[in-house]
Amino acid sequence: MTLDEIRAQIDAIDSSLLALLEQRMDWVKKVGDLKKSNQTLIYRPEREKAIIERLSTLSEGKLSPKAIEAIFLEIFAVSRHHEMPERVAYLGPEGSFTHQAAESRFGTLSDYVALPEIRSVFEAVSTERVRFGVVPIENNQAGSVVETIDCLSEFDLHIAAEHIMPIHFCLASNSEKIQDIKRIYSKDIAFRQCGKFLKEMFPPDITLVPVASTSQAVLQAKDDKHSAALCAPVAAKIHLVPILFENIEDSELNQTRFLILAKDFENQLSGNDTTSIIAKLPDTPGSLARFLDDFVQAGISLSKIESRPLKGQSGFSYQFIIDFEGHKEQNHVKALLKKHENHVKWLGSFVKSN
Ligand SMILES: C=C(O[C@@H]1C=C(C(=O)O)C=C[C@H]1O)C(=O)O
């Protein structure tokens, strides 16, 4: 076959794909109209996950589950945009890892607002300036993003979905020689993901400057020949700062989990859900042990528990952010949440990302 003949086959397939996508949009529009008349939510992460899982089992193997996910997340985002365009805030500036997480969920068509701090994303969702907010919550090598945990406690928002993404760092700088670099900017948690590289390449007295995000770090380093940033390669490219080293994270298994936040959001049960809560337990001996024992008795497994100091109090009082398997609408979960309703804040029940 000649190149032209092969391309003619591809063109024919693209025409069929387009016709099918347009047909799909017609059905999506009908779902959207139904949802509007019932005043129910447009974004249904658990339905999207179920579609991706079903298609992954149908695939003949030429497309990996990750590839199917990438293609269909974009189709869903375009569909939702067709049902109702929504504004999404994320921890910016442009080119942050959170921006990439937001785009994987909301596609390229959504109306994005890049905000300078995690707290500003919570504020934008709370005040309804935007419908959704995207923030990082934890990295599998470096631990939690404490600003997010503190804001989850402080604001009255819900977790609509989670998104887990591989994270690869680069070192970007306008410096010609690595020896000239005196300062490195990044988000605090990013330094902890690139500790080995920093130790190998720089003297111990190098100044590490924590800033609000990795893309902010690029902007700080941009105009100073003695500075560099640990950031996403895409941030370096957008802000035109040369990349000196790539893939400098300590572990190739480096992943970050992001949350999609919304006001008043309740997912339907998917059968593979995580519930997130914040528990403020009485400061008495055994209160945490008794609380956790209720999870054991109900056969509920915890996937995360982390303590954070309760702010504005004297002494040492703690709250706990807890993730566990199950959905608020399941009886055993419902019973547990009811029993502890006075000191538990439900943050969301959402389909597991993987
Ligand atoms: C069309 C729907 O709405 C949204 C779009 C989806 C899609 O394009 O398939 C799936 C779930 C929702 O986020 C639906 O709920 O079925």
UniProtKB/TrEMBL annotation:
Residues covered by the Prephenate dehydratase domain: 87-263
Subcellular location per the Swiss-Prot or TrEMBL entry: Cytoplasm
Domain Chorismate mutase positions: 1-87
Source organism of the structure: Shiella aurantiaca
Location of the ACT domain: 276-354
Protein known as: Bifunctional chorismate mutase/prephenate dehydratase
Keywords of this entry: Amino-acid biosynthesis, Aromatic amino acid biosynthesis, Cytoplasm, Isomerase, Lyase, Multifunctional enzyme, Phenylalanine biosynthesis
Pathway: Amino-acid biosynthesis; L-phenylalanine biosynthesis; phenylpyruvate from prephenate: step 1/1; Metabolic intermediate biosynthesis; prephenate biosynthesis; prephenate from chorismate: step 1/1
Function text: Catalyzes the Claisen rearrangement of chorismate to prephenate and the decarboxylation/dehydration of prephenate to phenylpyruvate.
Superkingdom in the source lineage: Bacteria
Reaction(s) the record says it catalyses: chorismate = prephenate; prephenate + H(+) = 3-phenylpyruvate + CO2 + H2O
Molecular function via GO: prephenate dehydratase activity
Keyword Amino-acid biosynthesis applies: yes
Predominant location category: cytoplasm
Enzyme Commission no: 4.2.1.51, 5.4.99.5
